[in-house]
Structure to design on (1095 residues):
C-alpha cells in the first residue's frame, strides 16, 4: 500500500484514501464542439502509458475529496511529488535522473 | 515418565510440566514448551509424513519454519482442522491432536508409495508430457486422479468458527527477526526513544542462540541474554515486542505485513481471543535480521526419516533436551555440523563418524571432535542412506570413487552450509549480489529504507553480527529522527563461527543413475530432475523452476533454491550469477485466509444500506432485492401470493387507485451557487438557464465520449439551487464526475456540490388518487393542477415536517415524490399509508416500479443502456439542447460512428403470442433460418408481463430499430424461435393523458 502526500491536506496518507483518476495535463478544449476528429481523438483516447515518469491525477476521495496531480515512476511505483490541480507541470523533478 | 529420547539435564524445558497429545491416534507425552516435532522426537517418532509425489516416508528435516516434510493436520474439533501445519512450528499443548497426511491406509503402509517404484513415469515435467491423449481425458480422468493422489493436506469442509483481528501500526524502526542481530538492533534503536517494533516468528526470542551452546553474551549464555534483553525491551513504553509473529510480505514504502498467531498454541483458546492478528505496519526504517537457513547435503535417499539438518539436531538437543538418535552419523561440507556432533557426543549420544566432503579442513571444532574420540573422515562422501521408514545406515566412499563402507546409524546430521534468508529483502525489491568467495547471495542494491544485519547479510560470527546490528539499529533510529543516542552495545564473550560449505549435488547424487537425491523435499524434486530439465531445453532458472516445481508451493525454496540453482548452473556450464535466482514471493510462510479477511466476512463483508422506511416494509412482509449495497423492497406479497400475483396486483392497483413506493435510494445531489445553472448546462445535455424556479426537468448526463452516463429528474428550487436526482447505483460516480469537472475543468464556476441521498427519504405516491392521499397532510402548498402542474416542485410542510414535494411521475400516472428529512421518513410514510388505505392504495416494490415504467417506455440507465448508447439511440434527442455550444459529451456525440446509420436504437417489442414473455438479454435476428452463427442485430433489454396491457411487453436495442416499425423479427431460444413485432416504446396510455388523470 502506497503512501501519498495530499497537497491540500499537506499530509502523507495511505493509498486506501485515494483514487486514481487517469493521466494529468490533458486539458479540455474551450471550444469543445469545434474540435476536429483528430484533436478529439488525442484528447479523449490517446494516453502516454510510459515506462517511467507519469503525470497523473488522483483524488483524495476519503479525505478532503480534492483532485490533485502527482508524478509517479511506474517502474519503482514511487511518487516523486504531488501538486495542486491547476498548477503547471513541474519543470524539475526531485530526485529524478534527468 | 521421561520419554525415551529425552536427555536428563539437557535443554531448557521444565520436565515436570507434561502435556498429553496424540499423533495418528497414538497417545504420547510431551513437555510444556515442546513443539509437536520435539515431542514426537522425544518419543522416538521420526516418520511423520509421506511426500507429495512419490509418497516416500518422511521425517523432520529442520526445527523451524523452513520445514518442508513434517506437515500435519491439527484438529481441535470438526470445524477447526488445519492442514499442512509444520510440526516444527506448532507448539505443543495438552490435548493436541495431530494426524499425518497424504497416506492411505496408514503412514507406515501407504498404497500411494507405488509411485516411488513407478517413478520413471513421474519425472520432471511429467504433467506436460504424459497425459496428453486423449484430449478429453485430462479433464475427466487424469486431472481428478492426479489431484486425488498428489497433494498434501485436506481443506476443512466447514466454515471457520474462529475470528481474526487486524491492526494498523506505525513505527520508526521495525526489526524483523529476533535472534542476536535483531535484539541488538532493537536495543540500539529503543534506547534512543524512538518507536520500535520487534517481531519474531518463534515463541521464544533468540534465533540461533537456541542451539549455539558456545555463545556467551554479557557474561551469560546467549539464549539467557536474549530473554533478558527482550524482557527489558518489553518494559519500554516505546517498544512493542511481537513473538509468534511472522513478517510474510514486504511491500512498497516500508509497508510490512505480519501475522501474529495469538491462540494456536493454547490448550483452550476460548472465544475471546482471535486466532490470529494481522499487523499492517508502516515503518520509517526497517532492520532485516532474518538469519540464515542451513542447507542439506544432496545424496541418494537423503530423505529417509532420521536424516536432518545438523542445526536442527542441535536445537532439539540444546533447547528441547531431545536426542534425535542413539548412534548418529554426520555428513557435512561445513564446520557447523561438527558443533552438532560435539554437543551430541557430550550429551552421551554415539557419533558413528563424521564424513566431511572437504579435503583438509582445519579448525578448533575439528580438533575438538577428534579429541572427543569421534571418527573424522575427510574427502569422503556419503553416497546413499539405507533404511526405509527410518534411516539405518550410510554408505561412504572416497569422493573420487573407491571402496564403499557401510556404517550403521539411526540418524544422519547434515550440513552443506548456510543460505542467508534474503526473502524479505528481495520482496522489498532489493537486488541480491552473488559473493563468489562465500558462494552465497547477499543483499546488494537496496530499493527501500531498510538494512540487513547479521546472517541474512552474510555476516559471520556473533561478535561481528552484534557490532553490525547494534550500529544499524542506532543509525536506523537516527535516520528516523532520533537525536539522543545512548546505551551500550552488548559485549560478546564467546562465540562460534563457521564458514563456507558447498552448493549443489554431492557425489552419489547421480548424474546417470536412477537414484533419488532430493533437492526439494516438499515438491519431490531430485538432482536428476533438474539436470533433465536443463537437457530438455529449460535454460532459464525460471523455466527450470516451473518444469521441475523446484522451490514452489508453500516452501518457496527455503532449503532447495541454492542447490537447484547450482545444479542447473553446473549442467548449463555457466557461473551461478549468470543463471540468476528465481523471485522470492510473498508470503514467506503460508498465511491463512482468515487473517487476511479479518472481520470482513458475513454481514461485515460489505456494508448494507437500508432506507428509513425499511423496518415498515420488513414488517409488511416485503421481499427484498439487493441493488448495489441497498436492500430494496422488491414486492409485497399478500398471503398466498407468489411474486407474479403480487406484482400483477400492485401494477393494477397503482393505475386504478394509487400506490406508495419507497424511492429513498435514489441518488440526490444539491447543486448550489451563483453559477449553479451554468454548471448544470455543462454537465447535462439539457438547457437549464431558462428553467423557472419551482419547475423540474428530466436531465441526461453524458460522458465526454457522448454516451449516456446517468439520468434523473432535476428540480430548480431557486435561481441558485438545484435538487438533482440520479440513478440509485449511479449516485457515487455521478458525484465524482461532477466534482471532477467542477474542480479541474470548470474551477471558475462558483458552485457547491453536496450529496443529500441519505438526508432525504423519498416516498413516491403514484396513481389517480395520489393527490387525494397527499393533500390532507400538506401545509403551505397549493396542490391544484394550475399551481402545481406536472414536473414542478414546491417546498412546504407535510405532517408538520419540512418537505420538498415533487410533482413527477415514473409510472405515467399522476404522481408525486414526497421528500422529507430521513429521520421522519417512516412516520410520514405511515401517515401517507393510513391515508392511502382509505382509497385502496397499495405499497409496491421495485419489480412493479420496473413494469410500470416499461409500460410507458421510460428507460433505466444501466439496463436499457450499456455505456454505448447515445441520447439519439435511446430516442431522447428531445432532451439535448440544440442551441447549446458546450456540454460534456457534445463533441463525443458527433463522432462519425455515433452519427452513422444503422446504430442500435431502443424500440418496443411485442411477441406475436402475447402470453410469451421474452428473456432479458435474448438476442434478436432478422432471419431465423440462416446458418449458425447467426447475425445478431440486437438484444432484449427489458421484458415483463404487463397485467395492465394484458400481454407481454419488451424494450430492445435493435440495429436501425426506428426504421423497422411493424417489422417481424425473431428471437431464437433453446426451445424454439419467438416471433416479435417491432413497435414504439410506449405500451400504455400513448397520449400521456393519465399524468393529469
Amino acid at each position: 500500500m502506497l503512501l501519498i502526500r495530499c497537497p491540500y491536506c499537506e499530509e502523507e496518507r495511505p493509498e486506501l484514501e485515494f483514487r486514481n483518476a487517469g493521466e494529468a495535463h490533458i486539458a479540455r478544449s474551450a471550444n469543445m464542439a469545434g474540435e476536429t476528429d483528430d484533436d478529439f481523438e488525442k484528447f479523449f483516447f490517446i494516453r502516454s502509458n510510459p515506462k517511467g515518469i507519469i503525470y497523473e491525477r488522483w483524488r483524495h476521495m476519503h479525505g478532503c475529496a480534492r483532485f490533485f496531480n502527482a508524478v509517479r515512476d511506474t517502474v519503482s511505483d514511487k511518487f516523486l511529488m504531488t501538486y495542486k490541480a491547476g498548477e503547471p507541470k513541474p519543470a524539475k523533478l526531485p530526485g529524478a535522473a534527468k | 515418565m521421561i520419554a525415551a529420547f529425552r536427555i536428563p539435564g539437557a535443554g531448557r524445558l521444565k520436565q515436570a510440566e507434561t502435556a498429553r497429545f496424540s499423533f495418528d491416534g497414538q497417545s504420547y507425552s510431551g513437555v510444556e514448551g515442546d513443539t509437536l516435532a520435539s515431542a514426537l522426537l522425544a518419543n522416538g517418532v521420526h516418520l511423520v509424513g509421506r511426500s507429495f509425489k512419490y509418497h516416500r516416508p518422511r521425517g523432520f528435516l529442520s526445527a523451524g519454519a523452513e520445514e518442508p516434510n513434517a506437515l500435519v493436520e491439527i484438529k481441535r474439533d470438526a470445524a477447526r482442522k488445519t492442514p499442512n501445519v509444520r510440526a516444527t512450528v506448532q507448539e505443543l499443548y495438552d490435548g493436541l491432536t495431530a494426524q499425518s497426511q497424504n497416506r492411505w491406509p496408514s503412514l507406515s503402509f501407504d498404497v500411494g508409495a507405488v509411485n516411488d517404484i513407478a517413478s520413471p513415469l513421474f519425472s520432471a515435467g511429467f504433467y506436460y508430457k504424459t497425459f496428453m491423449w486423449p484430449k478429453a481425458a485430462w479433464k475427466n480422468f487424469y486431472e481428478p486422479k492426479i489431484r486425488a493422489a498428489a497433494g498434501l493436506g485436506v481443506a476443512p469442509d466447514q466454515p471457520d468458527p474462529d475470528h481474526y483481528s487486524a491492526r494498523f501500526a506505525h513505527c520508526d524502526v521495525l526489526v524483523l527477526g529476533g535472534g542476536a542481530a535483531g535484539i541488538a538492533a532493537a536495543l540500539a534503536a529503543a534506547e534512543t526513544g524512538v518507536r520500535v517494533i520487534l517481531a519474531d516468528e518463534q515463541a521464544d526470542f533468540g534465533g540461533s542462540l537456541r542451539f549455539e551452546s558456545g555463545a556467551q553474551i554479557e557474561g551469560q549464555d546467549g539464549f539467557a541474554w536474549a530473554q533478558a534483553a527482550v524482557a527489558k525491551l518489553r518494559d519500554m513504553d516505546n517498544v512493542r515486542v511481537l513473538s509468534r509473529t511472522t513478517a510474510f510480505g514486504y511491500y512498497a514504502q516500508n509497508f510490512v505485513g505480519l501475522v501474529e498467531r495469538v491462540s494456536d498454541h493454547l490448550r483452550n483458546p476460548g472465544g475471546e481471543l482471535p486466532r490470529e492478528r494481522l499487523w499492517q505496519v508502516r515503518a520509517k526504517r526497517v532492520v532485516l535480521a532474518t538469519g540464515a537457513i542451513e542447507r542439506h547435503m544432496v545424496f541418494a535417499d537423503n530423505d529417509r526419516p532420521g536424516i536432518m539438518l545438523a542445526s536442527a539436531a542441535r536445537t532439539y538437543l540444546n533447547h528441547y533436551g531431545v536426542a534425535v538418535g542413539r548412534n548418529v552419523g554426520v555428513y557435512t561440507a561445513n564446520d557447523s555440523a561438527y558443533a552438532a556432533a560435539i554437543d551430541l557426543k557430550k550429551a552421551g549420544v554415539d557419533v558413528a563418524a563424521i564424513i566431511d566432503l572437504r579435503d583438509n579442513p582445519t579448525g578448533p571444532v575439528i580438533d575438538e571432535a577428534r579429541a572427543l574420540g569421534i571418527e573424522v573422515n575427510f574427502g569422503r562422501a556419503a553416497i546413499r542412506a539405507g533404511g526405509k521408514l527410518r534411516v539405518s545406515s550410510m554408505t561412504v566412499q572416497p569422493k573420487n570413487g573407491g571402496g564403499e563402507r557401510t556404517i550403521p546409524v539411526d540418524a544422519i546430521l547434515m550440513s552443506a552450509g548456510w543460505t542467508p534468508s534474503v526473502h524479505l529483502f528481495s520482496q522489498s525489491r532489493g537486488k541480491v549480489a552473488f559473493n563468489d568467495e562465500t558462494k552465497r547471495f547477499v543483499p546488494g542494491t537496496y530499493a527501500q529504507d531498510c538494512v540487513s544485519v547479521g546472517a541474512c547479510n552474510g555476516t559471520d560470527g556473533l561478535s561481528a553480527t552484534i557490532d553490525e546490528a547494534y550500529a544499524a539499529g542506532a543509525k536506523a533510529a537516527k535516520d528516523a529522527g532520533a537525536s539522543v543516542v545512548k546505551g551500550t552495545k552488548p559485549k560478546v564473550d564467546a562465540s562460534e563461527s563457521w564458514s563456507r560449505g558447498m552448493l549443489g549435488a554431492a557425489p552419489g547424487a547421480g548424474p546417470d543413475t536412477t537414484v533419488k537425491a532430493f533437492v526439494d523435499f516438499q515438491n519431490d524434486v531430485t538432482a536428476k530432475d533438474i539436470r533433465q530439465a536443463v537437457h530438455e531445453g529449460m535454460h532459464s532458472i525460471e523455466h527450470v523452476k516451473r518444469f521441475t516445481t523446484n522451490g514452489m508451493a508453500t516452501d518457496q525454496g527455503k532449503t532447495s533454491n541454492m542447490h537447484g540453482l547450482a545444479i542447473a548452473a553446473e549442467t548449463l556450464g555457466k557461473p551461478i550469477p549468470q543463471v540468476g535466482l528465481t523471485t522470492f514471493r510473498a508470503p514467506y510462510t503460508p498465511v491463512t485466509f482468515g487473517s487476511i479477511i479479518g472481520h470482513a466476512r458475513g454481514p461485515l463483508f460489505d456494508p448494507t444500506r437500508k432506507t428509513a422506511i425499511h423496518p415498515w416494509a420488513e414488517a409488511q412482509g416485503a421481499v427484498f432485492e439487493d441493488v448495489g449495497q441497498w436492500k430494496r423492497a422488491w414486492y409485497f406479497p399478500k398471503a398466498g401470493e407468489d411474486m407474479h400475483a403480487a406484482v400483477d396486483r400492485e401494477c393494477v392497483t397503482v393505475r386504478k387507485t394509487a400506490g406508495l413506493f419507497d424511492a429513498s435510494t435514489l441518488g440526490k445531489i444539491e447543486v448550489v451557487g451563483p453559477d449553479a445553472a451554468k454548471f448544470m448546462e455543462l454537465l447535462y445535455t439539457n438547457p437549464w438557464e431558462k428553467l423557472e424556479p419551482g419547475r423540474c426537468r428530466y436531465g441526461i448526463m453524458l460522458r465526454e465520449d457522448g454516451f449516456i452516463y446517468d439520468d434523473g429528474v432535476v428540480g430548480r428550487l431557486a435561481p441558485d439551487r438545484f435538487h438533482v436526482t440520479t440513478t440509485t447505483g449511479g449516485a457515487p460516480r455521478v458525484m465524482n464526475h461532477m466534482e471532477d469537472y467542477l474542480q479541474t475543468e470548470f474551477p471558475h464556476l462558483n458552485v457547491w456540490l453536496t450529496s443529500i441521498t441519505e438526508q432525504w427519504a423519498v416516498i413516491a405516491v403514484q396513481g389517480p388518487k395520489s393527490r387525494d392521499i397527499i393533500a390532507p397532510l400538506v401545509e403551505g402548498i397549493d396542490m391544484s393542477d394550475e399551481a402545481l402542474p406536472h414536473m414542478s416542485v414546491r417546498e412546504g410542510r407535510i405532517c408538520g415536517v419540512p418537505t420538498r414535494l415533487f410533482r413527477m411521475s415514473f409510472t405515467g400516472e399522476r404522481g408525486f415524490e414526497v421528500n422529507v428529512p430521513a429521520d421522519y421518513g417512516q412516520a410520514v410514510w405511515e401517515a401517507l399509508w393510513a391515508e392511502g388505505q382509505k382509497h385502496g392504495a397499495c405499497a409496491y416494490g421495485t419489480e412493479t416500479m420496473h413494469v410500470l415504467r416499461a409500460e410507458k417506455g421510460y428507460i433505466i440507465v444501466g439496463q436499457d443502456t450499456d455505456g454505448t448508447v447515445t441520447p439519439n439511440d435511446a430516442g431522447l434527442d428531445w432532451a439535448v439542447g440544440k442551441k447549446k455550444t458546450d456540454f460534456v459529451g457534445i463533441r463525443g456525440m458527433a463522432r462519425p460512428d455515433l452519427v452513422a446509420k444503422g446504430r442500435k436504437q431502443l424500440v418496443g417489442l411485442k411477441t406475436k403470442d402475447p402470453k410469451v414473455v421474452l428473456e432479458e438479454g435474448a438476442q434478436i435476428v432478422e432471419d431465423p433460418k440462416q446458418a449458425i452463427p447467426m447475425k445478431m442485430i440486437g438484444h432484449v433489454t427489458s421484458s415483463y408481463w404487463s397485467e395492465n396491457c394484458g400481454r407481454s411487453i419488451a424494450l430492445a436495442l435493435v440495429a436501425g430499430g426506428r426504421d423497422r416499425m411493424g417489422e417481424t423479427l425473431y428471437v431464437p431460444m433453446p426451445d424454439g424461435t419467438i416471433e416479435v413485432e417491432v413497435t414504439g416504446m410506449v405500451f400504455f396510455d400513448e397520449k400521456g393523458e393519465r399524468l393529469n388523470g
Summary: The mean pLDDT of chain B is 94. Chain B is about 20% helix and 30% strand.
